[in-house]
Structures are given as C-alpha cells and as structure tokens.
C-alpha cells in the first residue's frame, strides 16, 4: 500500500489544496485589515480629525485615539481629495527614497527618526517656533521644504527641493500614517 504512487500523489494533492485554501483565506484577511477603512487603518478622511496616541490600560499598550474635527491646512478634504493627496504623498515618499534614511513601522534605514507617528512628535512646537509657522502642518511644510535651514537633531536632513504641493501631500500622508493601529509601535512615543 505504502509503495503505491497513487497514495502519495493524492496525499500531495490534498495537502497542497488545503494549504492553497489557507493562503487565500489569510491573504484576503490581511488585505481587509491593512486597507484604508480596514480594521487597523482608518479611512483617508481621518486627516480631517484630531489624532492622538495614548496608553490603553486594558490592552496594556499605546493606541491611536481619533477625536473630533481638526482641519488640515484649514481645509476639509472629501474622501476623493484625501485619497488623491495621500496617493501623491506616497509617490513622493517612494521617489525621494525617504526610507533610505527613515523608517516607517520600523522598516527602512536607521539614520533618521521613525516616521510612523511623526505627526504626533512633541518636537513640532519647537519647529513651529523656529519656522514661525501658525500651525503644526505649516511648520512641517516649512521644515520639509527647508530642513537644512531648521536643524534640531545632531543629524541634518538634506534639502530635497520638495515643492509646496508635494510637502502638503507628505504632511497629509504622515497625519494619516499616525492614525494607524500599530499594536503599540513605537512604544511610549512622545512620553
Ligand atoms: C539623507 C537622509 C534623509 C532623507 C533622504 C530624508 N530625511 Fe527626513 N530627516 C533626516 C534627518 C537626519 C532628520 C532629523 C533632522 C533634525 O532633527 O534636524 C530628519 C527629520 C525628518 C522629519 C522630522 C521627524 C521628527 O519627528 O522629528 C520628518 C517628518 C522627515 N524627516 C520627513 C522626511 C520625508 C518625508 C522624506 C522624504 C521626502 C525624508 N524625510 C527624507 C534625514 C533624511
């Protein structure tokens, strides 16, 4: 019986079939979880809201806290506008290779700060004073357009000649990014 090739063949076929089914189920579950509007990732219109990051005692980790309206650049973005802006931000991040120096979700290069929660960095008021900006997003735009003029850390970010529209798209992307449930990464950010 054990010598029978049909026995081995049917075993291989049924095991592969089961594993393919498991892979399809896990992949579709992952896609549902990671897409904007999914379980862990807010809709792009979250950029119209206040975003925080606070200790959740029950879960014993930090979690994003979504609050009321807090407009970005004084504008309320529609779902379509927000999606377009964040798509542009993503393309700028990819074409300018920000992750050659930075990380997101801890992935990338460990030369410059992790950007996952950068929107919530308590350092922005210092940059706001330095750039004489009237808001956090304006300070971020001014910093991103002229990082070499406004250094804070030991390492200086080079001037990448980012234009105003691209800088605004980056800020929208970073604000949305900070709203993602990351299982507590980074731990105690901003404390
Ligand atoms: C050559 C390396 C390098 C590249 C490329 C780079 N950065 Fe930076 N970035 C830095 C360094 C270094 C700092 C810290 C600057 C300081 O503290 O003065 C920084 C700081 C920042 C900050 C402030 C982070 C915080 O919370 O303190 C943001 C936001 C940022 N960069 C975004 C970007 C984006 C977006 C891109 C791509 C368009 C990018 N950086 C590309 C090196 C880089």
UniProtKB/TrEMBL annotation:
Keywords (A to Z) from UniProt: Heme, Iron, Membrane, Metal-binding, Transmembrane, Transmembrane helix
Any Pfam family the entry gives: Cytochrom_C
Annotated PROSITE patterns: CYTC
Domain of life: Bacteria
Organism encoding this protein: Methylacidimicrobium tartarophylax
Domain Cytochrome c stretches: 84-178
Listed name of the protein: Nitric oxide reductase subunit C
Transmembrane segments annotated in the record for this chain: 6-26
Keyword Iron: yes
KW Calcium (keyword) present: no
GO molecular function: electron transfer activity; heme binding; metal ion binding
